[in-house]
Design a protein that fits this description.
With 235 residues, this protein is of the alpha+beta class. It has 1 helix and 8 strands. It has 2 domains: 37 residues; 194 residues, Porin, CATH 2.40.160. 15% of the residues lie in helices and 63% in strands. The chain has an 8-stranded antiparallel β-barrel. 18% of the residues are buried.
């Protein structure tokens, strides 16, 4: 009778141990699965809610962005890219072939960021390389030139700039795949500005050589306490 009790006790202990092992194994797999989800999703696409109120200005070395794309390689770091393109087209220019386009601009930043997450809040910081390219053309000012007849003044300009920016920000996950971010930016940009002036006739032919009216360069240092407010989606 005693031997039967011992056998029953041993079986009970074995069953309890097996159930405990299965329970802890399941919990371990669940924990591993939860940790692996921290590496996903890899991609983030954000729209700047301030960009409609900050139009691009060609007379500045800095620019604004409406869209940002980030690619995470692990939970604590990511590459980021943002770009902007502006185009101004005149469908019926005063001189055929000119002011088409009247101006265009291309800007993009490529950067790296580090992250620290606490529950729904993420603090991030890093640096961007800045590239800017602006071109513009205006044909204005009807006039009369001796020997050439009716002429127009053609103004052309270009602004090229290169720089670096440091940023820091915070984001809050308002849903599983949606976050709201606020970012502070400090940038240092070097730019070269050149404007030329010439005369053209009604056929678009140049009747006087181009003259450089402006040729300068400069450095811009700017602090933007609230540079962007991103609404982002993750996938």
């Amino acid at each position: 009778m005693t031997n039967n009790c011992n056998v029953c006790n041993n079986h009970s202990k074995l069953i309890s141990f097996s159930l405990s092992a299965i329970f802890f194994a399941c919990m371990s797999q669940l924990a591993i699965g939860q940790d692996s989800t921290l590496l996903q999703p890899r991609w983030e696409v954000g729209v700047d809610l301030l960009s409609p109120f900050k139009p691009i200005r060609l007379d500045e070395l800095n620019s604004t962005y409406g869209l940002i794309i980030k690619r995470s390689f692990e939970p604590k770091n990511a590459l980021r890219f943002r770009s902007n393109f502006g185009y101004d087209y005149m469908p019926d220019p005063p001189v055929k072939g000119f002011n088409q386009p009247r101006s265009y601009s291309l800007s993009f930043d490529l950067g790296y960021e580090k992250r620290r997450q606490h529950k729904r809040f993420v603090h991030y910081y890093g640096a961007d390389l800045i590239f800017r390219l602006h071109r513009l053309e205006n044909v204005i000012g009807l006039g009369i030139s001796p020997g050439t007849g009716t002429t127009f003044t053609r103004d052309r300009g270009r602004i090229n700039s290169l720089g670096i920016a440091a940023f820091t920000g915070g984001k809050y996950f308002i849903a599983e795949r949606i976050s709201l971010s606020l970012e502070t930016n400090i940038h240092l940009v070097y730019g070269k500005i050149v404007y030329t002036n010439s005369q053209v006739n009604t056929a678009g032919q140049v009747v006087s050589p181009s003259v450089v009216t402006t040729s300068t360069n400069g450095i811009e240092f700017k602090v933007s306490p609230i540079s962007v407010i991103y609404l982002s989606y993750y996938f």
